[in-house]
Structures are given as C-alpha cells and as structure tokens.
Amino acid sequence: MPAPLAPVDVQLVGTELAIRWRDGRESYLPLEALRRNCPCALCQGESTATTTYSPKKKDYSAESFVVRSLQVVGGYALQIVWADGHATGIYPYSYLLSLGEESPPPR
Q1: Among 8, 76, 89, 90, which is least packed, fewest CB within 10 Å?
Q2: Listing from the earlier edge strand, what are the strands of the sheet with 16-21?
C-alpha cells in the first residue's frame, strides 16, 4: 500500500521542481531554494551527544542550482544530485511539502 504522503508525479519544470501529491495538492519548489535548504549534515550541521558541528560556508555556482538526477529513497524521500556534484541531501516528503507550503503559488 502506498504511503499517504507520497508524490504521484515529480517533474523538473524550468527552474522549479513540480510535485503532485497523492492527496491532490501540488508543490512548485524553486531549485535554488531547495539547494539552499538542503537538509544534509554538511549543509545544516549536526549534533552528537558531545559536540555540535556547524556547517561550513558554502560557495554556490550556477551548477549548484541545476538538478542532475532525482531518486526515490524508500517510500519517504527524494535524493537530489546537483550538477556541482553535491548529492548527500535526502529530502523527506514531509519536508518538501512544508517547503511547498511556504512558497507562493505559481504564477
């Protein structure tokens, strides 16, 4: 049985990732915003029981905002591989949906 929060269609449309969700909602996520909000530990930092690691300053290029590929991870997320080689971000569907709800609707 498919997960209740799952995309039924994901497409790159210009500079956006368009997602149609199983419940009929649609999200249009600017690629630059997705990359700048990458949830991986390299981009966001991480904490262990004894230490907190802050993310290093990132230098973005034009390739940083171009998607090379998308892969489904389990039944809960998308992994985005960016043209500059960054590929450690796994974007849970709930995170993508929340980013889409923060974005203004498409024009």
Answers
A1: 8
A2: 7-13, 16-21, 26-30
Domain span at residue 48? 7-102
Amino acid, single-letter form, for residue 101: E
Structural domains in the chain (count): 1
Give yes or no for residue 103 having a pLDDT over 90. no
Pair of tokens at residue 27: 């999200």
* Residue whose entry in the numeric block shows the structure tokens 């966001």: 44
Q: Is the pLDDT of residue 48 over 80?
A: no
- Coil vs helix vs strand at 71: strand
- Kindly provide the residue ranges of all beta strands, DSSP E only, lying in the chain, ordered along the sequence: 7-13, 16-21, 26-30, 46-47, 52-53, 67-73, 77-82, 90-92
User: Radius of gyration over alpha carbons of the chain, in Å?
Assistant: 14
Please report, as a single letter, which amino acid is at residue 11: Q
